[in-house]
Request: fold
Amino acid sequence: MVITARKCRAMDSNTAFILNEYRARQAVDRRDYGAAIEYSMIAAAKAAEANDGWGFCRMTFNVAELQLGLGLMDECIATCGNLFETDAIKQYPDYESRAKVLVTRAMHNRGEMGDALVTAREASRLPMQELSSEGRLSVQHVLVAALAEEGDTETAWEEAVRLAGMLDDEPQPRVAGMAYWAIGNAGFMSGRIGAGLNYHRLAAESLAMVDDVSLWGLFNKASAHMRLASGLVTQETVECIERAEVAYEVVRVTEIDGYEITITRAWWELETGNPGIADKLLISIEAKVAGPYPFLLGRTLQLRARCLDALGQEAAAMECAQKSERIFTEVGAEVLAADSRKIRDALGQSAR
Reply:
């Protein structure tokens, strides 16, 4: 049997691919995500050398997913952008849809709500019959979230109802939990508080069965946020915050998630009559989010405006409200920009 030099190179590339894929998984297990990205990049390059389109897409997507988890939004979007430009991705529409979902989430984390919605709609226009059931659910999930965050809450609810209908096949607990989470968010944001609470309860039941402390913490952080936004200053709300804080201490979730948990705790303190405590919490992260996370800076300043107003510091409150409005306008978060304008206008009227 004659083995050509070309076949030898392909075999060597395949061996290197398997080895680096294994190393990437080991790095994830020990939470060395930087190393996991490096090994995944090497594996993707070796897959390309071996003309292994499936392996190339899988490992490139793995890089982007890890980057998103580390809060590297620009890098995640760039990695997915490079993937979209390859011929390999067209062979695997499930990975194309999943990569668009990642881009949508990265844009959302950067506060670019309009662009996030555009990408979510692009994902929803992919041939659904060629996607896995999990892929279809993931696309619908991100479309619901993008519509709700953009402020089109009624359309978000319509799509959420469609998402609920897609769960009849009893998917895995993680998939079901993520879907119920999105549906609950749409319920809260469209004023359907009872539906929001019901679907978040279903999400909690599903996600509790998944051995993922980080995901459990992120869900509880998000649920607390939705409850506070709906005026539910209850024991169940603070319990969600406490679960998120404990999860963060156990697994040390990403930097951006840690900041969001602090913002949510500050919001709780403000709503329960402790504006001074809330403002101190917000001051502790304001400088840290100012550079890399303009959207979180806007949220921090908006909440600080309310704290300072409650503390009788109207001039400082007005400055924070104006800054937050400007930031939200710049990143395209019009719903939150409108909220900052309301705070600004109320402060202006009280000063007269």
Summary: The chain has 18 helices and no strands. The mean pLDDT is 88.
